[in-house]
Amino acid sequence: MEKIGPDNFDRLSIEHLPNVRIIPSTGLPSNTPYLTLSHRWGNPPSLLLAKKKKFLLHEDISPHLLNCSEAVVFRHAVHVTRSLGFRYIWIDALCIMQDDEQEKTADIMQMDEVYSNSSLNISAAEGRVREGLDLDRNTLYINPHRAKVRHPITQDDIHLQAFRGNSFLGPREAPLNKRGWVYQERILAPRVVHFTQDQVFWECSSLEASEVLPQGISRWPRKHFTKGIMDPSVTSMQQIKSRWFNIVEDYSHTSLTFTDDRLLAISAVAKKFCSALQREPSDYLAGMWKDDLPLSMLWMQHSQPDTDMLEPTAAAEMNHAPSWSWASILGPIISVELSSLTASAEVLNVQAVRMSPNIFDGTESCRLRLRGHVCKFCRCTQNGARWINVAQHTEFQEISDFEFQKGRTIVIDWDTSRKMADEWLQTPEIGLASFEYFLLHLASEKSVDGAIERGIVLRKTNVRGTFSRIGSFFTPPQSEYSGSKLEAAFTGRLATLSTDDYFDLDFNGKYIVEVV
Q: What is the distance between the alpha carbons of residues 382 and 360, in angstroms, rounded to a whole number?
């Protein structure tokens, strides 16, 4: 493409060259090249396509873009699109009828195609709605100090560069990249150009570059941000599964303005994975894949506060996901490697009521019926330490970190984003003797240091045999689990539940319960 000089570049702006229109994509050939835009919305947004603004569909929208202070990023994106030789750009705020729920749902269900088929995604990475892409930059950040030195032995010349700031952009670097909706746009777009405060960054599947390193670094094995879903024709299913869990972990660190968007904002990625994993859409259950259950229920809430989280909301739980799904809490999570686990519980039935036609969104309800070993316990305090009691015997000291302590210890990672669990932990007199807890054993793991038993912590609901998750647990390899009352309960030799705690009990001592 022929280079554009400064004068010609300015002539491509909306101020100099108006006539910007919203057109239906149905009238364009399917292979029409186009760009997309990732941006921060105003609060509330000032310029949106809505029923009351249908006139935007029938006229030049340049005057509206010029007269709206929050449309600066749109003006700049159109300018960049023209300068790169493209004619079309897709902008969610202007291409989706925002107050038509049926149309909006249908369009969101196509987000995987919109972003993955685009030629380039423009990212207004600083997230400043009134500044757009044209930021007051400090040129010192993109003018490195250069030096040439000679190797004393080989006499080869070595060229050195030293510069302030970043040469690449990590998963949550720049304000916009901490947003949940933007995360999937960045994953799906084949190429992204990030406009940040100090320089422009480029990323695609083969190159990460910036203004200070326009060619990237050759032979650099590690990507700062991995794009795409993986091609099943050249990748194993296990690798694709691992990629999904890695994406979920990264995504769980992002923030959302509306808590109920927790699953919707990653639904386009889930749809792509459904195809890559060769699954049926109905196998997707509020962020979890049916055939990964029950082992995938062993996720843990990250114990450290996430300083990257933006706009923390008052509610720490999401209503449209079951408690056994990572999506039910609004906080960072850690997945457990499933390949080293041997399941001890089995899923008998799943009953899911979807909340919308988008099957990759959340659920109104999702009940999981399982058969497994369950142990009832209480908590107590001795000499300032927390202990759990099984069958009226003090059994294991409760610890929160993975410490290879000898003696009877159990690691419990509480879902502290849940209001009830957080209150129990903050108020000892409430959370100890006042409540009964349940451990559902899900898997055993053989490590180089010894056996590990894993499961989830439950609280009973008001419905017989029905529980909700409030945490996860595991026994460290040197915890003296063998010969304990807990082992007896997890092998069916000790019954700790009352008849109203379960639906049925088999001859192996496994209980049938439901988790919601």
A: 47
CB 274 within 8 A of CB 143: no
Tell me which residue of 414, 372, 375 sits closest to 395, measured CA to CA.
Answer: 375
Q: 294 near 346, Cβ under 8 Å?
A: yes
pLDDT in tens, 253-270: 999 988 999 999 999 999
Cβ neighbour number for residue 341 with a 10 Å cutoff: 17
Q: Specify the DSSP class assigned to residue 152.
A: T
Q: Say how many C-beta atoms besides its own lie within 10 A of residue 236's C-beta.
A: 10
Tokens 């009877």 -> residue = 408
DSSP conformation class of 255 = B
Neighbouring-strand partners of residue 284: 289
Query: Does the bond joining 477 to the residue before it have cis omega, within 30 degrees of 0?
Result: no
CB 51 within 8 A of CB 101: no
Q: What is the DSSP letter of 256?
A: -
Average pLDDT over residues 321-344: 95
Distances (CA, A) of 195 to 173, 209, 368: 12, 13, 45
Mean pLDDT for the chain?
Answer: 88
Residue type, 510: K
397 and 384 Cβ atoms separated by less than 8 Å: no
- Please state which of the ranges 247-251, 311-315, 457-461 shows the lowest mean pLDDT: 311-315
Interval 316-326: pLDDT, tens: 889 999 999 99
Hey, what are 240's tokens?
A: 């694709």
- Residue ranges of alpha helices (H) inside 343-484 are 419-426, 428-431
Mean pLDDT for 454-464 is 96
pLDDT per residue over 188-200, tens digit each? 999 999 999 888 9
Residues 61, 55: Cα–Cα separation, whole Å: 9
DSSP string, 167-224: SS--TT-SGGGGBHHHHHHHHH-SEEEEE-SS-EEEEESS-EEESSSTT--TT----S
Neighbours of 323 (CB within 10 A): 22
Q: Convert the pLDDT of each residue in 54-105 to its tens digit.
A: 999 999 999 999 998 889 999 999 999 999 999 999 999 999 999 999 999 9
